[in-house]
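Per reviewer request, we include the raw input and output of the structure prediction for the construct analysed in the revised manuscript.
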Amino acid sequence: MDRGLNPALVPLVVGFAGYGHTSLGAQEIFDLLPFREVEPAGLKALFKENNATGRCLYKVVFREEHMVEPGRKGKAFDLQEYYSRPHLYRSRFADYLPYLSVLVNCIYWEPKYPRFVTLHDLKELYLQNSRPRLRVIGDVSCDVSGSVECTVKSTDPDTPTYVYDIKENRARDDLEGTGPVVLAVYNLPAEISLESSIFFSQVLKEFIPHLSTISLNSKFQELPLPPAIKRAVILHRGKLTPDYSYLKNFLGR
């Protein structure tokens, strides 16, 4: 960074889709680098005013209101409505794609929600611009054919990336072709298993004495578990707990 970035890459903008634990973990690593944070609405000005520097990176975090908009013109975004009636919303993320160098996707997604990065959007970006800024998509969520439509397959640590060739509409493991490099390692958290295990064990340690005295024969609602532990219980006595009842939709029964 002492010499700065190649001017062709300035400003180098890394976007994080989502703001939950996964996104915060990815940002924690990114934040080790010199950076400035900008709001999504400020991306256009960053380029227009030509005040970016090659001695730092730029970070932008996208929330729901940045990624989707009501399908009905003139209607205001409503977060609760979006979650309860997502069919009334459409993606607006294509507005930001021309400004991003890297996109790190960290959102929870289900098929009922709109896709945020579609193949149509990527074709518009790559086929109309011979050198688009977007070079890499790190799909930490790794939903195949999900919120990022060019995530057409998951990868493994030995071959973590592929190029989604926009012209040929396929993934290329040889990293050739016209399109973004996609990282979609399905078991990415396992790659830092030692650090994760040490951190998790240190946090869990304080709960062990109390857990060892609890009887699990009572109803889930009556279990005297610490809130942090109770929120993490998926099954109790063979049944899904209330917070995880949505998993029935994926179990086929």
